[in-house]
Amino acid sequence: MSKLLYIALFVFLLGNHSVFSQKSETMIIAKDTTKLEEIDPLRPSKAAFYSAILPGLGQAYNKKYWKIPVVYGAIGTSLYFYIDNNKKYHSYRDAYKKRLLGQEDTQYGYLDDSRLIAAQRFYQRNRDLSLLVTVGFYILNIVDANVDAHLMQFNVSDKLSFQPDVYTNDINYKPNLGLTFNYKF
Fold it and tell me: Exposure winner among 100, 102, 123, 129, fewest CB in 10 A?
């Protein structure tokens, strides 16, 4: 009994002290995580304007530098085909005009008139199509810069997630596939 009394007294005396692992002078100030970044409403229009002035400049303004070679590759390739088809169209047209005037054509002398007209139509159609594709890529460049600037202002966090989930069945240990929708407050 006396041993139990000594142990209880020892625990009472030692267990009654306050022990701190940190100094109470240092205070941690929490950062306000709910404060959102200020939205610049002119950012999308600036990006679109910059892309309209010089293709790829809006992507540089949005700091999406990897898109600049894609923009110049698309516009440059379609512009190359426009210039090439335009040269060939004028070449066949000039040969047909020479033939109508009665002059000798050395370049396309082996073709008859119907083939020259068909070649003109073919290259004219391809030239016009190439011009439409070039204008389409130019407009797509402007729209991409505008949409990308709009999407940069959205808050994307892990609080809301939608992802596929593969888990095993506890009974037969076969994999099950499902979708999970998580929202954290």
Answer: 102
What percentage of the chain has pLDDT greater than the value 70? 77
- Judge whether 176 and 161 are in contact, CB under 8 Å: no
Rounded to two decimals, the pTM is 0.65
| pLDDT band at 38; cut points 50, 70, 90 | confident
**pLDDT band, very low/low/confident/very high, at 2 (cuts 50, 70, 90):** confident
- List C-alpha distances in Å: 171 to 12, 25, 52, 176: 52, 56, 61, 12
The secondary element (H helix, E strand) that includes residue 168 is strand 160-168
How far is residue 80's CA from residue 166's CA, in Å, rounded to a whole number? 49
Other CB atoms within 10 Å distance of the CB of residue 138: 18
Torsion, CA 164, CA 169, CA 174, CA 179, rounded to 10: -10
Least Cα distance to 145 among 26, 61, 42, 41 occurs for 61
